Amino acid sequence: MKITILGATGRTGTPLVLQALERDHTVTAVVRDPARLTVDSHPRLGVAVAAALTADSLGPLVAGRDAVLSVLGPHDLGPTSICSDATTAAIAAMRSHGVHRLIVVSASGAYPGPGDPPLVRWVLKPLLGLVLRHPFADTRKMEDALRATDLDWTIVRPPRLTGKPCTGQYRTAVDRNVGGRARVSRADVADCMLNLLENPASARTVVSIG
């Protein structure tokens, strides 16, 4: 497939780009600073510089692609709109160019609910929500924007992310949390996103991973 990756230089974006190339996808990596992309040149890798993620700037970068994958996230605990703004821009750009498949990374911590053990659901996640209230508010706004569209979106909700290698040994659950799984590697999240990309039945679902 031809895919565009937002957040390609991030800690989840790098393994996502590498794994996508290993699976024979053609990748457009959207970056602000090309020097931060620590991926060797590849005949199926294109690097596109976008200083700001707007519908206009993303339009040419999604045109003709099969899907857009976003692994953008905040860098601190302060007020942010990076996820919701980029997703809104991507939605507008995709609509303009007839692209329908969009997969984004969200956060399990922002959504206490079914699948969580009682302590996690009623105590730990609410406490985490106080600490991460600004990033979580942005995450929820992003998810709301997706649900209001007719795109074939998939939301991936991981717990705490680590820098460990890809194992493929993780669990997923649709429209509920993965209980008892407090962390997962960023590389495994990338693997999960690509599996979902290749599975049309995952469209318009929320997939938790752990």
Automatic annotation (TrEMBL):
Family matches, as Pfam families: NAD_binding_10
GO molecular function: biliverdin reductase [NAD(P)H] activity; riboflavin reductase (NADPH) activity
Domain NAD(P)-binding: 7-200
Signal peptide: none
PANTHER family on file: FLAVIN REDUCTASE (NADPH)
Name of this protein: NAD(P)-dependent oxidoreductase
Organism from which the protein derives: Actinomadura craniellae
